[in-house]
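Researcher: We're teaching a course module on how sequence relates to structure. For the next exercise, students receive a sequence and then see the predicted structure as tokens, so they can try to spot secondary structure elements on their own. Here is the exercise chain.
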Amino acid sequence: MDKLVIEGIGRLEGTVTISGAKNASLPILAATLLSDEKSVIRNVPMLRDISTMLKIFKCLDVKARQDGDTVVVDPKGYKKCMAPYELVSTMRASICVLGPLLAKQKFAQVSYPGGCVIGPRPIDLHLKGLEALGAGIKVEKGYIVADGRRMRGGHVYLGGHFGSSVLATANVMMAAVLTKGVTIIENAACEPEVVDLTSFLMKMGAKIKGHGTHRLIIEGVRRLHGADHRVIPDRIEAGTYAIAAAITKGDVTLRNAKLEHMVALVDKLIESGLHIRKVPNGFRVKYVKKLKPIDVTTLPYPGFPTDMQAQVMSLMAVTEGISVITEKIYPDRFTHIMELNRMGADIRLEGPSAIIKGVQGLSGAPVMASDLRASAALVLAGLVAKGRTEVKRIYHLDRGYEKIEEKLAALGASVWREKEK
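Model: And here is the predicted structure for the students to work with:
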């Protein structure tokens, strides 16, 4: 098992290229199962989660290969419909094969998903939405067993306790595109990753109206063809490197990043005092003056993303004053607080809110990554901590950040990977 070692240094400077979005790539790859024809997906990051999806394809007898940032999928003639526990249990996004399998093969057997430990993330909206289309669903021995032979268009409401669901929207939409009749999805997620999936489905021949809004209207078609598609940049990776620039008082240009996908985060960083401006094919983040504390509440898009909560907490941990971060999406997503406090941060938890009192500096320490974004937060803290920081269990990090140690090193960070003893 690997660990990341960081020697805290001064400012980061230079240009970093942002990879394709993991959270767009995974459902788009799943959508290739809807056709019998070959699809080419470009700008796909080389990540552990992508490898897991391709292993699931192998279990389905679907031919797929990744060459650099391009994945070619040839689903012609596949008949298997089971996504096994051994793979699905490691990655929550595996659940997004459920909708395509139901629509194309009229049957699916998919294990309950796993992934990061950030509190309960039920899949009730997925099952509710598919049942509204007429799918018969039961749970047997940890597997979702779904029968799609009686599916037809329907009216689906996807409101949950913490807002709309990206993966539930993706699953229901993918099931609906090959289902006879008209499906209306109310309270659909409108994240850029959902819009990107919609664009790909429409290239395949799907009939969808309302993409980018909370109301999707889908007219089922008889068949879909293959398509060539380029995945959008990863807004969470871009946000993480923006905070790396801020926390190290640096000057970093984010190539291939889309500022329009990051409005809520950028607004808060500017409010704190960071200088951010658009440049050709990206944007530049520059520390120009002492930062101020901010209050943040995570909300569904276009609100502040929950996937940036931990990283912003690291920044506020070394920003003078009192900051408050309230988690409205996953209230239990605070496992990184204990590890940041071990490094000298002053953070206390009050219900769904973290109260952060900025300190003058952090100290390097061995820390344990509990989930993907918590891992990134600990790496950010290590960039400014005095001494040596060791981030253990970075297999979480490898699920969502492509070559993070190489990209940080290119900006001037002292960071490398070692085997844990």
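Model: If you want an answer key for the exercise: The longest strand covers residues 2-7. The first helix runs from residue 22 to 31.
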